[in-house]
Design a protein that fits this description.
Blueprint: H1 2-9, H2 16-21, H3 49-60, E1 64-75, E2 78-89, E3 93-98, E4 107-111, E5 114-119, E6 124-128, H4 144-147, H5 153-156, E7 157-167, E8 170-179, E9 188-194, E10 200-206, E11 212-224, E12 227-237, E13 243-254, H6 265-269
Antiparallel strand pairs: 1-2, 1-13, 2-3, 3-4, 4-5, 5-6, 7-8, 8-9, 9-10, 10-11, 11-12, 12-13
Length: 270
């Protein structure tokens, strides 16, 4: 029982914070005239990084979200499927409840940036903090820390437009992001943004040394109103051998009012 509880404390999923984490809000960027070449292509008609981030932001930033989700974890030849329902509001509040038999009744609440887990076995609530935030969640390719960032990338990174590249037949702008603070888990990031739809097709996360730590790749987006919203993607932790996590969302509802009771400690205990 104790071992099972320990595992469940490490359980979490790609909350809406992940989608929020890749949502970019324009702040500062150098002009495209100073951008470098990529694959020999001159950026003569490129948008400024500032403008490009604003377009990405329009796709992925929302006031609220509800959805049904599935996380498929593939690790060293084994496959695990987790099913859940989730709700999120802004960048600070999220609620997730697992529905698959192995984890049924396990709940997570992110309230004002703090992460709590409820275990149905012990009927207790635990605050996840400190070194635990860096651990793998649910044995997946994401850490708890990946899911609880409250600020957009543009508030934490300085972007530079560096070139163009074709990704799976789609032309993309390439952005390099450098962290404004040394405390960032990923001091450098690289994004590939579709030149037409402004979806983030690929993202790479780097350590300060330049070593690549993780990779994100979009599988499918869905047209919701005027935006192209990512509903299926893959995350790979390159420090884990033979591992990837596929995340899927369905019945996505954006910008609808969600009662405050959803994001309450009382709801976590129910």
């Amino acid at each position: 029982m104790r071992a099972r509880n320990k595992v469940k404390r490490r359980i979490f999923l790609v909350l809406v914070s992940l989608s929020t984490a890749i949502a970019l809000e324009a702040q500062q960027a150098p002009s495209s005239a100073s951008a470098s070449k990529a694959s020999g292509t001159q950026l003569t008609d490129a948008p400024q990084a500032l403008e490009l981030l604003a377009r990405v932001d329009a796709n992925e930033v929302y006031d609220s979200i509800t959805y049904e989700g599935e996380m498929v974890i593939e690790y060293q030849g084994k496959r695990f499927v987790k099913v859940f329902k989730a709700a999120g509001r802004g960048n600070t509040d999220s609620y997730v409840e697992f529905l698959n038999p192995e984890d049924r009744g396990t709940k997570y609440l992110k309230k004002e940036g703090r992460l709590y887990v409820y275990s149905p076995d012990t009927e207790s609530i635990m605050l996840i903090s400190g070194h635990l935030l860096k651990e793998s969640m649910m044995g997946s390719d994401l850490s708890y820390e990946d899911t609880i960032e409250n600020e957009t990338l543009s508030a934490r990174y300085t972007p530079v437009l560096v070139g163009t590249e074709e990704v799976r037949g789609r032309k993309t702008w390439m952005l390099e992001l450098t962290a404004r603070k040394r405390t960032e888990s990923y001091p450098k990031r690289k994004l590939w943004v579709d030149t037409t739809t402004h979806e983030v097709i690929r993202m790479e996360l780097f350590a300060l040394s330049g070593a690549k730590l993780k990779e994100y790749e979009l599988i499918r987006s869905e047209r919701i109103g005027a935006r192209y919203f990512p509903v299926e993607f893959v995350m790979r932790d390159l420090l884990r051998r033979d591992s990837r996590t596929i995340f899927r969302m369905r019945n996505v509802v954006l910008d609808a009012k969600i009662p405050d009771t959803v994001f309450s400690m009382r709801n976590l205990r129910k």
